[in-house]
């Protein structure tokens, strides 16, 4: 489990991508992260989206993407 400072640092690294488009997404089909989503749908929705902002809350990171999409 990352420390709070590590989460803030990682989120700051992601901030350099604000305003840029996502070029490629890989969703592991055997991962349980997506539970009710098909990995191919995750890939198609996130590919070509633009990162518009990021935030942290505790040890969680939240990313806002174009098209009113959120990841976190």
Characterize the structure shown.
The chain is an alpha+beta fold. The chain has one domain: N-terminal domain of MutM-like DNA repair proteins (Alpha-Beta Barrel), CATH 3.20.190. The protein is 26% helix and 22% strand. The protein has two helices and three strands, in the order ααβββ. It has helices spanning 4-14, 39-46; strands at residues 51-57, 60-65, 69-71. The chain has a three-stranded antiparallel beta sheet with strand order 1-2-3, with helices on one face. Strand 1 and strand 2 (60-65) form a beta hairpin. The two termini are 16 Å apart.
- Principal-axes shape call: globular
Q: Which runs of at least 5 residues are low in confidence (pLDDT < 50)?
A: none
Secondary-structure element string = HHEEE
Through-space gap between termini: 16 Å
- Mean pLDDT, as a whole number? 90
Q: State which percent range the strand residues make up.
A: 15-25%
Q: Rg to the nearest angstrom? A: 13 Å
Enumerate how many helices there are, as a single number. Answer: 2
Gross CATH architecture = Alpha-Beta Barrel
Structural class determined from secondary elements: alpha+beta
Question: What descriptors fit this protein?
Answer:
N-terminal domain of MutM-like DNA repair proteins; three-stranded antiparallel sheet; globular; 72 residues; 3 strands
């Amino acid at each position: 489990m990352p420390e709070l400072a590590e989460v803030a640092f990682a989120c700051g690294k992601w901030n350099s991508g604000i305003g840029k488009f996502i070029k490629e997404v890989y969703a592991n089909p055997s991962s349980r992260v997506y539970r009710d989503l098909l990995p191919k749908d995750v890939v198609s929705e996130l590919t070509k989206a633009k990162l518009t902002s990021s935030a942290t809350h505790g040890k969680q990171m939240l990313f806002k993407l174009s098209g009113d999409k959120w990841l976190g």
